[in-house]
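FAQ

Q: What does a record look like?
A: Structure on top, sequence underneath. For example:
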């Protein structure tokens, strides 16, 4: 059977996920006493599986500019720590209240709520510890730019703010622009940073950096639309978390607003737009083009 570009990307993601594990183990702290449980919870969440899409984007965009692989991998590990923190907190009873993540018990179910909160906090702060380390980059200005840009992406006007809007909008009617903004903040902002990180490491500005940010925005919104489609079309076993939960919670999504068919059309348009925006990189961005197609074609 001939391998498609989607198969290729899925294989690349799987290989990358495996190759990232030693770097994740390296940055995790060793337990020295009674704090052992929170470190166990951090490790449990980090190694529970997942696509590793965001760290993969960091490394692939870094390769466009011939960034040292070691630098890119450290930023990728930092992003995976931060993303995992967001999932731990997202699953808490006070947030989206999900007992399953990546096909396994959520951290608050495997341990307890207090441990889950603390494990998330620790992974968030570990992310910035990694980025501030000279091993991530020898230039302190680049390290500061990584930290400042990521902080904006995940703070009150980014991921955290998007989560607040998501919670407050349950059982409310939002227009499409409001839903787009919420999803660009909650999901898209971290994906945009993951695409931009390679340019920051290479000190690249201008059209090439802007192209990666636009690519990140497009695939970020498409990614969330596909997530919302999978929530209604796939089983909990397929998606690794509780299916149908968004509908029961009265979540405001593009799918609930314009219907599944129109949402698929919108996601396809976003992916085509993302792919077109990579023309500036010629063939060097072929993996990113295939990844965009994977985002909209995935079933988990």
């Amino acid at each position: 059977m001939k391998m498609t570009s989607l198969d290729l990307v899925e294989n690349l993601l799987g290989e990358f996920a495996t190759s990232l594990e030693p770097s994740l183990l390296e940055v995790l702290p060793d337990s020295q006493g009674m704090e052992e449980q929170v470190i166990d919870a951090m490790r449990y969440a980090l190694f529970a599986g997942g696509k590793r899409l965001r760290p993969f984007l960091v490394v692939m965009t870094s390769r466009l500019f011939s960034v040292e692989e070691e630098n890119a991998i450290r930023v990728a590990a930092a992003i995976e720590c931060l993303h995992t923190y967001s999932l731990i907190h997202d699953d808490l009873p006070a947030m989206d209240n999900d007992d399953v993540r990546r096909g396994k018990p959520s951290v608050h179910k495997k341990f307890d709520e207090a441990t889950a909160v603390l494990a998330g906090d620790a992974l968030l702060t570990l992310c910035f510890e990694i980025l501030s380390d000279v091993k991530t980059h020898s230039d302190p200005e680049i390290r500061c730019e990584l930290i400042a840009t990521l902080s904006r992406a995940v703070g009150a006007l980014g991921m955290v703010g998007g989560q607040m809007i998501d919670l407050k909008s349950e059982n409310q009617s939002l227009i499409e622009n409001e839903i787009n903004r919420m999803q660009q903040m909650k999901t898209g902002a971290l994906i945009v940073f993951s695409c931009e990180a390679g340019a920051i490491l290479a000190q690249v500005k201008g059209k090439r950096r802007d192209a990666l940010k636009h690519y990140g925005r497009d695939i970020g919104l498409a990614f969330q639309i596909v997530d919302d489609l999978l929530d209604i079309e796939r089983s909990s076993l397929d998606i690794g978390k509780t299916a149908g939960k968004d509908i029961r919670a009265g979540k405001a999504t593009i799918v609930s607003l314009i219907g599944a068919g129109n949402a698929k059309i919108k996601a396809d348009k976003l992916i085509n737009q993302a792919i077109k925006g990579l023309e500036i990189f010629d063939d060097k961005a072929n993996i990113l083009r295939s990844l965009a197609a994977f985002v909209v074609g995935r079933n988990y």
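Q: Is there anything notable about this one?
A: The longest strand covers residues 100-101.
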